[in-house]
Structure formats: structure tokens, C-alpha cells
């Protein structure tokens, strides 16, 4: 199963969907055709937050799509070359991690400054100093 996020020429809003054979199909279209709705497939964040249930729902829709692809109209499925593929998962956070001595020193000072009064991290910080 290939999960995708994509846009089409006449709509800049990203769609979350799946590749069915060589076609991009949104989960919204598949759900409307099947008559089932899952909030887990609204976007990639919902999908990731609700694994494995979301994966099961996506696989069911993919199986239906593979059997009934010809029933989808031209505005419901798009050749992969006709869509703009986006990153398959929306980035919720980006963490920087480095092991250079300068980075470690700066990180330690910043954590000490902002976390010293946090009851969850204060004991950990006391043990490091």
C-alpha cells in the first residue's frame, strides 16, 4: 500500500489517499463510493495517530479501489503523472540532534535554564550536574 498526499491542478488543497494501480485516489472519494466513513483517514496525522485501526480501514478501501477502479470518474482518480505528489506524512515536529561538544554544551545550558523548575525533569538535571 502506497499512501500519498497530492494536489491536483484545479485545487491547491492537499488530498490524502492511496495509489491504486497507477492512479492517485483520495480516501475521501473511496469512502464516499463505499459508503463508509473513517475519521482516521482524514489526513496523514489522523492516520498515524490511530494505527493500526487506520491501516485496516485504508487497506479495505484500497482493496475496494483495486476491484472497482473503472467505476471512478475522471474527477475521482488521477494518473500519477498528472498530480503533484507531496510528502506522504505531514511533519508535526522537527527535532535537531547533534553530538558536537558545542551543541551538547548549549543544549545542556538551555535545558537547565528552562527545565530547572519542572518537577518531572529537575531530578534528572540534578543527577547530570
Summarize the structure in words.
By secondary structure, the chain is an alpha+beta fold. It has 5 helices and 5 strands; from the N terminus they run βββαααββαα. It has helices at 27-34, 44-49, 53-68, 101-115, 122-128, and strands at residues 3-8, 11-20, 23-26, 78-79, 84-86. A 5-stranded antiparallel sheet has the order 4-3-2-1-5. A hairpin with a 2-residue loop joins β1 and β2. The longest helix has 16 residues, at 53-68.
Short recap of the structure:
With 129 residues, the chain is an alpha+beta fold. It contains 5 helices and 5 strands.
Q: What is the ordering of alpha helices and beta strands?
A: EEEHHHEEHH
Instruction: Determine the N-to-C terminus distance.
Output: 48 Å
Cα Rg: 22 Å
Count every beta strand, where a strand is a DSSP E run of 2 or more residues.
Answer: 5
The residue-averaged pLDDT reads 89
Percentage of residues assigned to helices: 40-55%
Structural class: alpha+beta
Index terms:
single chain; five-stranded antiparallel beta sheet; 5 strands
Amino acid at each position: 500500500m502506497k499512501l500519498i498526499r497530492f494536489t491536483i491542478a484545479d485545487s491547491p488543497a492537499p488530498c490524502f489517499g492511496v495509489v491504486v494501480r497507477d492512479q492517485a485516489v483520495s480516501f475521501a472519494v473511496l469512502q464516499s463510493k463505499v459508503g463508509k466513513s473513517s475519521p482516521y483517514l482524514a489526513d496523514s496525522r489522523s492516520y498515524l495517530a490511530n494505527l493500526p485501526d487506520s491501516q485496516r480501514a485504508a487497506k479495505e478501501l484500497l482493496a475496494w479501489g483495486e476491484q472497482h477502479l473503472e467505476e471512478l470518474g475522471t474527477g475521482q482518480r488521477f494518473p500519477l503523472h498528472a498530480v503533484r505528489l507531496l510528502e506522504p506524512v505531514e511533519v508535526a515536529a522537527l527535532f535537531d540532534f547533534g553530538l558536537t561538544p558545542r551543541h551538547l554544551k548549549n543544549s545542556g545550558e538551555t535545558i537547565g535554564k528552562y527545565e530547572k523548575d519542572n518537577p518531572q525533569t529537575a531530578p534528572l538535571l540534578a543527577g547530570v550536574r
